[in-house]
Amino acid sequence: MFVDSETIRFLWPELILVLCAAWIYLGGTFRGSRRWWVAFALAAYLLALGVILGLEGPATTSGDRGGLASGPILVDQLGMICRCFAILVGILLTLLMSKSTRHDLGSEYQGTLMLLVVGLMLVARANDLVLLFVSLELISVPTYVLLFLGRRDRGTSEATLKYFLLSILSSAMLLYGMSFLYGLTGTTSLRGIQAAVSTQPSVAALSFASLGISPDALIYLSLVFLVAGLGFRLAAVPFHFYAPDVFQGVTHANAALLSVVPKVAGLLAFTRLVILGFPQAASQAWEILLVLSILTMTLGNVCALWQQNLRRLLAYSSIAHAGYILIGITVALADSQRAGDSQGGVAAALVYVVVYAVAALGSFAVLAYLGSEQNEVHGVDELAGLARTRPFAATALSICMFSLAGLPPLAGFWGKLVLFLGAVQTSSGGLTVQVMQWFMILAIAGAINAAIGAAYYLRVIATMFFRAPAKTLDAEGGDGAAVVMLVCASLVVAIGLFPGIALNLARKAEASLRAPVSLAAQDPDRSQPRPVEHAWHAPEPPRTNL
Amino acid sequence: MDVSVLLLLIPALPLAASIICATLGPRVLGRYCHIPVILCLVAAFVCSFLLFLEVPRTAVPTESDRTVVYERVVPVWQWAVIRDALPQALRSDGGPVSRDLSIEISLRADAMTAMMLTMVTFISSLIAIYSSGYMHGDRGYWRFFAYLSLFVFSMTMLVSASNFLLLYVFWEAVGVCSYLLIGFWYEKPEAAAAGKKAFLVNRIGDFGFALGLFLLWTTYGTLNFHDTPVNTPGSVPVASVGADEAQPSDGDAPSATGTVRGVLSPTRIKNHDFAGGRVGLAICLLLMIGACGKSAQFPLHVWLPDAMEGPTPVSALIHAATMVTAGVYMIARCTPLLMVSPESQIVVACIGGGTALLAALIAITQYDLKRVLAYSTVSQLGYMFLGLGAGTFLGITSGMFHLFTHAFFKALLFLGAGSVMHAMGNVIDMRRFGGLRLRLPVTHATFLIGCCALAGLPPFAGFWSKDAVVASIEEKVHSLEHGEISAGGEGPAHADAGAGRSAVPSTGSANGLMANAAAIYGILFYVAMVTAFLTALYTFRAYFLTFHGPERIPEEAGHHAHESPAAMCWPLIILSIGAAVAGFALDLTYTRQPIQLFAEFLSTTPSLALGSVVGTRVPYAFHTGIAGISAAVAVAGTLLATYLYLGDSREVQWLKSTFDLENFSRWYESRQRTNWGAKPWVAAIHRGASRIGLGWLATLIGQSLLLAGFALASPLLLGNFFSPYKLSFHKFFLDELYGYIVVVPLRLAAAACYAADRWIVDGLVNACGKAALAFGSLMRSLQMGLVQFYALAMFLGVLVLIATKLMMLAG
Amino acid sequence: MNEAALLVNFLIVGGLLFVTGMVGFLVRRNLIVMFLSAEMMLQGVSVSLIAWGRFHQDLGGQMLALFIIAIAAAEAGIALALILMLYLRSQTLDVAFWHDLREEGQPPYVDQGIPETHREEHKWPRLTPSGVRPEVDQEEQMHRSRV
């Protein structure tokens, strides 16, 4: 028995989605109707959501699932919340793509998207390097297919090619980083890694010393490669180069996918891998990430100032937001160095990524809605006078853009507020003076960037509201896109009005993320990696001579 | 129904109506837009009335203390919590202080709120009904009703907010609604300009208010009116706090452990824990600036007369009955803050009295019917401030009482004016119509009742409330002179309660002010009397000009010159009943057991349960003397108006020309001036002189004579310019004065700033912007589209990170 | 050879494979070769993982390596399909052909090409003709010059 039934039980939603995806692939050859498969996919997502909330909700909140926690999957609040969010993203993307796909490819499209959502759900709960890698690839591989299927022209081909090649490269780097992590600790379980790294000095480290390999160097190497691999997914400088080109080339729906899914996955992998697995490397990690964060947001914002193409503009905006998300991770890393209460860095980053995702999805949905299959909306100028010709779409886009710019009382404001507050608080209560100075710089850079960022969002809004209509847009993006646009805009407003709910959920998620740390510290049995507990491991690893 | 449900329903109904109107109005509802609005507003009024009945029922008196406090807070949701926002708690002497800034949306019910809610929803329901007739056929019919119900929503939220921040938000919201409604006919340039003026003048006040809020927060560490439990934000239990729940007020014991004491909460009031001294004074004055802006008090009153450009129902609702009283409400709500700095109370009283007199003087000579009413509103608001400024229990309740009655009769008068306008084809100049009493019988009768109420003729509503205000001033003077109450405003019974912390306010710079307090209040008493006389005069002047004399109808009226439709008449009738009976029905001091029901009702408000306020509470009595004097004054004013406008016209003309110094104007007005050149003998001399070559001499003599004449006549001309009539007619030239001392320097400063901004600041900002752009451009050049370059960048990124680490390790 | 030295040797091999793959990815312009270079990087990782697994007496590394191979196979499938489609569209496998998507205003990349060798100077050895002339495949020549 590879996997015990308990694990299966907690994998039901994913299994349902995988089975439905397979069914969609098979059935698509017999029944080509796009509409039918969209409905089927929506039903599948709702079923999975129901299973998560109905079956697992009580189980997750009831406490730590001892045996499972060291297996390949984790059952905790963070996973729970992020899976629900993944399904929400899946539903929204399904609706968004309901008309933008070619009619004969409807089923392939939906099936592939569903697998991608499964990947995202698995990233949220991976407790094992293997599962983490596989689930990240389960996001990447369907993404290539989706990007290519979106449209048949040179731009799409080129964009897919670029994304594909660079994504493989980044996967290789991520894997290389994982290999060092594995080499350092001798286990693929994240919890085991955490335990091994936190025992000082570990058995392995002692034997490295005899080899002349310093474990610190290994940690650093691993960290750099992990940052490279995950930075690609977050679109952080200097791994961001693909983003503008790829966004420009693909359809609006695919751009929405690219701006949301890899970012969420990257952040989750970051939290799981770096923050959970690396308390020791934190001092080095936050320096790297702080610099990357400042560079990323600055570069994203200043480049976005120049853009005329809407998707390119939103691509740079997505880069800038990756920088903001990195602030949260940096704060969390700096916090993990010292004892005491956290400043909520992870929670802030989670809130921010959700808030960003909703607003970005909404923006792309509006653009998708405004165009048609033949005439997509490209330039900012094409939106001139939209407030008069399409008031609802213009309002939705303005709400989303105001939120991206971070204006109160919309969701983006709270996202930025908690992020910057975290940085400011670290800057006033950091470990050393140097830390405090750096975080002050970070907070100031964030504030300046928020100001720069507002400029280009407001330019778009001003174009919509204060210029004479240039040409009438087709607005044939379909009802799905319209629904997504309205849902996202109202979500943005709702989170803005009731930020407490989102913040509390994120805090709970962060607490659940940190809970095993204290458990491991208290329980002497768990301070050592226990490979026996791994469900996928054979009890006695055979010893072979190479 | 439960109080919390009622409290939520009251604002929710108008909001729903507003949304319905805004979304369905233009396409679906069309000319039936008023139906949802009227239904919702009437329903809201019913809810308010239930609340009004509920409040005294649940306020249970206790035996231990004679003050009964009723407060009920309904938290709706916790909008935001910002942790550790306050660097350090400045006042940590009473109970725990939270350092978080928690923005809580919570509504409250107490006597004052219930009173305001009932008044607002009642008047607004009637005005909505009236508007359905008045605005009939307007292009922006749906827009009007959407704005109107949005205003009612904001106003109900304003009076039921239990948080200064929320109060501020809706303070601004009513300002926005007012702006939108003043400029409702935005194609009309005057309307647009008036809207802008109102908005800008209000900004000055709001700026002060905002500063006051900042100061409040740093001083008290919270902006809530009520107590909030610590550490459990968002789950404030619904609290009905009676006076008996607080611990005995021994000064330094924390009131209730585990709660942050709200700024105006009963526990804080019980312990009399308010910041005095300069901080307290600054808070009060800043709040006062805010109130001056919203309630159109001198020197920020200039926007209100211009606000009459809006539709008349708007003037009646917003600019007479409800929104402009927000300032009065706020000051009354903040009574405990004012009590610890009596200087600020004197300021309030002086501003109120001064404004009352000034506005009354201006109102006498205006020919625009609505403008007369606008100035009378400013004047009556001045009365309310005067009452609040007395700082005694009687003063505050009488100020609120005047607010209540004023809402009835002023709304009535405005609606009557609207009815006249409606009939006269939107002509409002009183010189162009007259003698309308037969044409508009209902309007005439109701307007007369309104005039009597405004003029303060017994037994109409205005008489009772104005009398109460005047009486409170008199009582204050009396107590100051006889030292019954110390100047500090500390009640003797509670001097020990909070004196330890807050009873040292009157030492300092304002000592002179305090020493002369009795004299100041004495002057204010006479000011109030004079104003009462003037009020009667201008009120009846307007009445006579409009409804008496020979019948004149402007040609714009066309065939409209008849009584208004029923939808407009019924609100008039209902309001006139209110204006007639609201006074003596609520003020029962003339009966055998004197009790003022209104004051009794209000006394359960936490803000008025402050020891030093309660200490000034005296047994109710009917002030026969003062009532007599003020009635006599009002009657005198009325008689004078009757004589001037109905009496022998020749005598009146003579009187007018004497007092207005109109004769002087003949000296310089060109059409009156003699045309010297046309006189034959002058021409002959001139011709003859020029014939002998001395024409230049004649011209010279003539011109020098003219110059000398002007020089001699200049004092007279100046006098003419400043004649009382002209002063009043031109509103004491205050607008022009502002024009010269505020607007022109501001324009100059603006020009200077513009230049500086254009050439220096803009240069810098542009340089920064350019720098960002240039940096962006630089970064863009990396984006050359080649996959392998991107891969190289990624790889180099990794290498740089590793190399940096190596270099750091090495050196 | 003790375990530790074995580990180091394998790590060096893995690292070399990784770096070679990376360099190949950066310098080769043929799409297929670029993809193969990326696969080589993955194989370098696999070697490292297996070496680490042996060192720690743990099967996790081998497990991950197996999954890497599986996923690489999946990616290869997609890669080849994608490259085929691109070839059909552009008739070239040159990765630098695809740079239409770039920042506005940036000059297009111009292939400078290999500097021309002077054909005239190049003297091929000439043999006296004997028997049949060898036939030169036209298609092969075309490919040769291009790849």
List the total number of helices of chain B. Answer: 31
Shape of chain B: globular
Average pLDDT figure of chain B? 76
As a whole number of angstroms, the C-alpha radius of gyration of chain B is: 32 Å
Assembly type: heterotrimer
How is the biggest beta sheet of chain B arranged? 2 strands, antiparallel
Strand content of chain A: under 5%
- Domain count of chain A, please report it: 1
Portion in strands of chain B:
under 5%
Helix content of chain B: 55-70%
Describe this structure in words.
The complex is a heterotrimer of chains A (546), B (811) and C (147). By secondary structure, chain A is mostly helical. Chain A has one domain. Chain A contains 22 helices and no strands. In chain A, helix 3 packs parallel to helix 6 (106-125), helix 15 packs antiparallel against helix 16 and helix 15 (310-336) runs parallel beside helix 19 (411-429). Chain A is globular and about 70 Å long. Chain B contains 31 helices and 6 strands. In chain B, the strands form 3 sheets. Chain B has a two-stranded antiparallel sheet. A two-stranded antiparallel sheet of chain B has the order 3-4. In chain B, a hairpin with a 6-residue loop joins strand 5 and strand 6 (595-596). Mean pLDDT of chain B is 76; it is low at 232-257, 484-510 and 661-673. Chain C has a domain at 3-97: Helix Hairpins. The interface between A and C is large, with 56 and 53 residues.
